[in-house]
Amino acid sequence: MAGQYTLTMIKPDAVSSNYTGGILKMINEAGFRIAAMKYTRLTREQAMKFYEVHRERPFYEGLVEFMSSGPIVAALLEKENAIAAFRELIGATNPANAAPGTIRALYARDVQQNAVHGSDSDENALIESDFFFSRLERF
Ligand code: UDP
Ligand code: MG
């Protein structure tokens, strides 16, 4: 398959609620191929770096705190039109606005603790996958 790539994280809220299996099942059933995956925990510094595009936003400090509060699952996903398809599968940032049946509608707590990350562009998918995975970790 020569699809597009997107980077996801199952965030600390979803991992600690034991939603990892349910979320990975939805990702598999939606036809994404897992090209790389790891269970890890971001340091505060790593969370700051990952979300540096948002450093001027009012929610940045809370987001960094939350994203470094516990383990996550990071994965590189491949599918045709993966970035848009995954954004559709996860739903709106705020679960109150997420379409029924989306990952965030099912599993997110609120606008911050919203269960999953999904890349928003090819450029950021590349930056984000290089953040987590070496060449030897991608298949
Ligand atoms: N976020 C938040 N408050 C907000 C908006 C976003 O805490 O008002 C958090 C939330 O965890 C979100 C992340 O910051 O997923 C990145 O925000 P973005 O706008 O990129 O949303 P996403 O692309 O994740 O839907
Ligand atoms: Mg985003």
Describe this structure in words.
- Helix content is 40%, strand content 19%.
- The chain has one domain: Nucleoside diphosphate kinase-like domain (Alpha-Beta Plaits, 2-Layer Sandwich), CATH 3.30.70.141.
- The longest helix has 11 residues.
- Helix 3 crosses helix 4.
- It is globular and about 40 Å long.
- The protein has seven helices and four strands.
- It has 139 residues and is of the alpha+beta class.
The helix/strand order is EHHEHHEHHEH
Bound chemical compounds: uridine-5'-diphosphate, magnesium ion
In the CATH hierarchy, the third-tier topology is known as Alpha-Beta Plaits
Cα gyration radius (Å):
14 Å
CATH superfamily, by name, is Nucleoside diphosphate kinase-like domain
The percentage of residues in β strands lies in 15-25%
Helix content: 25-40%
The CATH architecture can be given as 2-Layer Sandwich
So how many helices? 7
Strand order within the widest sheet?
Answer: 2-3-1-4
Distance between the termini: 12 Å
Mean pLDDT: 98
**Major β-sheet annotation:** 4 strands, antiparallel
Assign the CATH class: Alpha Beta
| Unreliable spans | none
The gross shape turns out to be: globular
How many domains, in number, for the residues? 1
